[in-house]
Amino acid sequence: MDEPRIDVLRTQARIELDRLEAHATAKEVAAKAIGKSAIMWIVLLVLVGVGSAAFLPSESLAPVIGLVATAAMALIQLVNGIVNESRKEEKPEITIIKELIARLDQKEPPMQVSVEGDRVTVTKGDDTIQTRSA
What we know:
Blueprint: H1 3-21, H2 26-55, H3 58-83, H4 92-105, E1 111-116, E2 119-124, E3 127-132
Antiparallel strand pairs: 1-2, 2-3
C-alpha cells in the first residue's frame, strides 16, 4: 500500500474510534473532568482554610474550617471513588480498531521464495512453507 492511502485509512480509523468513544456516559465524562482538576481544588480549599484562620475572628473560625474540611473530604472521596472504580472492559469494536491502527504503522516483513529442484520454500517473517512438485 502506498503511504497516502495508509494515512487516509489511519485518519478514518481514528475518526471512527473518536465517534465510538464519544458515546461515553455522563458519569465517565464527569469523572474525567473532576480527575483533571481535583488536586488544584483541594489545594485551593486548604488555602481558603489557612487564609480564613489568619483573617477571621476566632468565634467564626470553627464553622468555616468545618465547611472547608467537609468540602475537601468530599472532593477527596469523590476522586478516590473515581480512581478505585473497577475498569470496564473496552468495547470489542474499539479494541479491534486500535489493533488495526497499530498494524497500519507496522512494516510487513519481506517475502522470500527459493526454488531448489522440485522443492519450493516460501518465507515471510517467521512463517515458512515448503512444497514439492508431484
